[in-house]
Amino acid sequence: MNRKFWQIPVSLFLCAVFFAPLSHAVIETYQFDDNAQRKRYQVFIEELRCPKCQNQNLSGSNSPIAEDLRRELHRMILEGQGDQQVVDFMVARYGDFVLYRPPLDKNTALLWGAPAILLFIGVLVVIVFVRGQKSQQQKIALDPLKLDADEQHRLDQILNEYPGK
Amino acid sequence: MGRLKLFIPLIFFAAMAGLFFIVLLDEDYDPQSLPSALIDKPMPVFHLPALLDESRIISVDDLKGEVALLNVWATWCPTCRVEHPYLNQLAKQEGMAIYGINYKDESVAARQWLKKLGNPYRLNIVDADGRLGLDLGVYGAPETYLLDANGVIRFKHVGVVDERIWQEKFKPLVVVLRKNALREAGQ
To answer: Does ipTM top 0.95?
Structure first.
């Protein structure tokens, strides 16, 4: 059998399997007056989070509430409402949860601060580790053959076992 | 000291595992639950038909005057069926004013449901396209809001209201709000 013949369907199948999670579940098609409106809609459905879902944006969710919010979003964009108005509308109903980038306040301080704190801890660990290694290396470099009492004892034993060498 | 350093990851792991386990043991912990953005805000304005008499239009003013529950339900919601007998009991035994929002539902099926399972609601608002639900920040039925006598939202619970939830979460608030309402009425 020709090898190339079955390779095509198999690779198509594998592509389908791997890329399936990337294809979004949105089914409605909305009409827009122009491309700018369409673009704003796309940005919003990527940036806003579905309230029912744990971690999906509006574009990725099939839940009825996400459908409703997309419908409202479409209506607001056609009405020409500003970005801040759209965000305020969503936050007034569902809280900061709907924003993937919530504003910085005392509730979200840890969320925003954590990357910097973790980076700081990481750098600290690396510095301590590197310093430890260096002082170890320096010790060896200064006195490469320095053995402690145990090591000296074992070395003597081994040497005694092979007196000929 | 050198040896002890080796145990740092293990200690860290044990601490995290302990933390997660404590959260897991907490019965009230629900990762899906979302704090409501509408607490202490007035009930959103609406004008929607009543379920049992669609020529009648219900508005915010119809919900005022008494501390009340506002229950979001639908016939497609299995958990609402679980909750329903307890709402009947609350209306009957506690004399609680309960209003319903029939959320994104078929009105015919909803009327049949009330006929079959009993009607604890003083009024039912038909919210067929879910717009009132959206204004309320509803993200899944059943949801139950507690309104004070002035129609201000004071508390929200997502999920079944049962004896435990009622006693622990609603009742203490209801007692305080009723007292406040009496005091205001006396002035």
So the answer is: no
